Amino acid sequence: MLAQIYNQIDTAIKWVDDRIWGLPLIILILTTGIYLTVRLGGLQIRHLPKALRFMVKNEEEGHGEVTSFGALCTALSATIGTGNITGVATAIAAGGPGALFWMVVAAFFGMATKYSEGLLAVKYRSIDEDGHVLGGPFYYIERGMKQRLPQISWRWLAKIFAFFGMCVGLFGIGTFTQVNSINSAITGFFDPNMAHTVSLFGMEYSLATVIGSLVVAIFVGLVVIGGLKRISSVAQKVIPIMVVVYVGFSLVLIVVNITALPDALVTIVESAFGLRAAAGGALGAIIIAMQKGIARGIFSNEAGLGSAPIAAAAAQTKEPVRQGLVSMTGTFIDTIIICTMTGLSIVLTGAWQVEGIEGVQVTTYAFQHGLPFPAKFTAFVLMLCLVFFAFTTILGWDYYSERCLEYLTNGHKKKIIVYRWLYIIAVFIGPYMTVSAVWTIADIFNGLMAIPNMIALFALSGVVAKEAKDFFKAEKHKL
Predict the structure, then answer these.
(1) Is a pLDDT exceeding 70 seen at residue 60?
(2) Helix or strand or coil: residue 372?
(3) Can you give the C-alpha Rg of the chain in angstroms?
(4) Ramachandran region of residue 274, left (φ > 0), alpha (ψ -120 to 50) or beta?
C-alpha cells in the first residue's frame, strides 16, 4: 500500500517537474547567460584572472558583515555539495555523457549571470544601524526594478522569489537532497548489505542511516544557531581543504586513465549532439542531455537562481563590480572545475553504464575502479568529501532561506527561530525520502526560484553593463 502511494507521489512530482523544467525555462536560463555574456563583452574570459586575484584579496575599506572571501566561501558552501558528486552522476545516468557537455556550456554563460547577480546584490543592498546587511535578489528586484519602472511596485515579484527561495532551502537543495546523499554515502560505506536494519514508517532502514541523520541534524543545529558569522567561519575552514582533496583525487584518476581520455571526450561531445542515438532519436537525445545537464548544472552552481547574491550582499566591499567578479569565480570553481572532474571520472571508467547503481554509487564505482588505491580507502575518502560538501551546503542554504524569510516577515525574529527548528527537522527526515522524489522536488523549486530572478536580470542588464564599463575604465586610469 505504501509502495503504491510513493509511486503515485513520484509520478505526480515528475509531471510537475517536466512542465517547469521543459525547454522554455532551459532556453530562458541559457538566453540570459548568453545575452549578459554578449552585453558584457565576454567578461568571464577577459577578467577571470583578475576575478581569481580578487577572490583571495579582501578589501580593506569595505563595509559588510563578512570578508569577500568569507562571502564567497559561504556561497560555495551552498553550491559545492551533492550536485558536484551525486548530481553529476544522476545527470549522466539519465541524459548520457553529453549531459556533462551542456553542464559546462551552461556554466560558462552562467559565469556572466553570477557576476551580474553579485554586482546587483551589493549595489542595491542597505546596511542598518547595527551593521546588519539587507541585500539579495529580493532587494534588487524591489529597488532596482522600481528605478527602471517607477510606475509599478515590484515588491510582489520580490516576495515570490523570497517564498520559493525559502522552499528551496527547506524542501530542496538545503535539506532533503543533501542529507539524503550524506546518509546514502554513510550507509553504502558502513552497511552496504543492510545487515543492521530497523523498521520505520513501514519500511526497513539501515541503522547507519538512522544514526547518521541524527548526528547530522545535531551538528547542523549547533552551527545554524550561530548565524552568518559562524556559518562563514566553518565554510572558510572546510571548503578550501575539501576542494583540494577532491580535485586532487580526481586528477590522479584522470592521469592514471589518461589513455582513455581522448575516447571519453569524443563520447561526451557525440552524446551531447545525439550522434550516438539510434536513427530518428538524435533530437530527443540532445533535448534529454541538455535538460539533465543544465538542470543539474544549475542545481550545482546556482547561476541564475539568485541564491549566491544573498551571501554576496553581506561582503565587506564598496565596489559592486569587484564582488560581482568574486561571485563569478564560484561558478568556475563549482562546475567548470569540480563537476567536470566528477563527470570525466564517471565517463572514463564507464560507471554510468553499470546497471543497478544510482546517485553517489555511480561516482563511488568510478573512484573505486579508476584509482590505484584500495577500494575501501577510496570509498572512505569520497564519503568524507560528500559528507563535508553536503554538510556545508545545508549550512549555506539555511542562511539563504532565513534571509528570504526575513524579507517576507520584515525581520520577525520569532518566526525565524521557528523556521530554524523546522529546518533542522527537515534535515533529520531527509534520508527517509525516496531518491527520485528528492531530486525532482529540488528541480521544481529551482525552476520556480529562477524565473523572477531572470526577469530582474534582463531588466537590470543595462545597470550591470554601465557599472562594469565605469569600473574597468577607472581601473585603466589607475595604471
Answers:
(1) no
(2) coil
(3) 21
(4) left
Which positions ≥6 away from 377 have C-beta within 8 Å?
none
Handedness of CA 163, 140, 16, 393 (dihedral sign): negative
Whether the CB-CB separation of 359 and 89 falls below 8 Å is answered with yes
C-alpha 384, offset from chain centre? 19
- Give me 194's grid cell: 543492510
Other Cβ atoms within 10 Å of 11 Cβ, number:
9
All three cell numbers of 21, joined, read 523544467
Measuring CA to CA, which residue among 450, 468, 426 is closest to residue 180?
A: 426
106 closest CA partner among 274, 275, 301:
301
Mean pLDDT of the chain: 82
DSSP code at position 144: I
Q: Rounded to an integer, what is the distance from CA 433 to the centroid of its chain?
A: 20
Q: Which three cell numbers stand for residue 242?
A: 575539501
Nearest-angstrom CA–CA distance, 69 and 397: 18
What pLDDT score was predicted for residue 279?
Answer: 44
Residue 369 CB: number of other CB atoms within 10 A? 17
Look at the block and give the residue holding cell 532519436.
281
Q: Answer yes or no: is pLDDT of 280 > 50.
A: no
Q: What global pTM score does this model have?
A: 0.85
Do the beta carbons of residue 463 and residue 123 sit within 8 Å? yes
Separation between Cα atoms, residue 127 and residue 132, nearest integer Å:
6
In a 13 Å sphere around the CA of 146, the CA atoms on its Cβ side amount to 13
Give ∠ CA 81-86-88 in degrees, rounded to 5: 100
Helix (H) or strand (E) holding 126: strand 126-127
Comparing CA positions, the residue from 63, 19, 75, 36 lying closest to residue 320 is 63
Query: CB of 148 within 8 A of CB of 460?
Result: yes
The Cα-based distances of 180 to 44, 91, 168, 332 in angstroms read 34, 17, 15, 26
Q: What percent of the chain has pLDDT over 90?
A: 17
Q: What is the distance between the alpha carbons of residues 290 and 278, in angstroms, rounded to a whole number?
A: 17
Q: Which of 355, 260, 326 is nearest to 76 (CA)?
A: 326
Least confident of 52-56, 226-230, 353-357, 374-378: 226-230
CB environment 32-62: b (16+ within 10 A), e (fewer): bbebbbeebeebbeebeeebbebbeebbeeb
d(CA 296, CA 91): 6
The secondary structure of 345-371 as a DSSP string is HHHHHTGGG-TT--THHHHHHHHHHHS
Give the number of other Cβ atoms within 10 Å of residue 312's Cβ. Answer: 31
At residue 112 the predicted structure's pLDDT band, cuts being 50, 70 and 90, is very high
Q: Which of 24-33, 148-157, 337-346 has the highest mean pLDDT?
A: 337-346
Task: Give me the pLDDT at residue 171, please.
Answer: 76
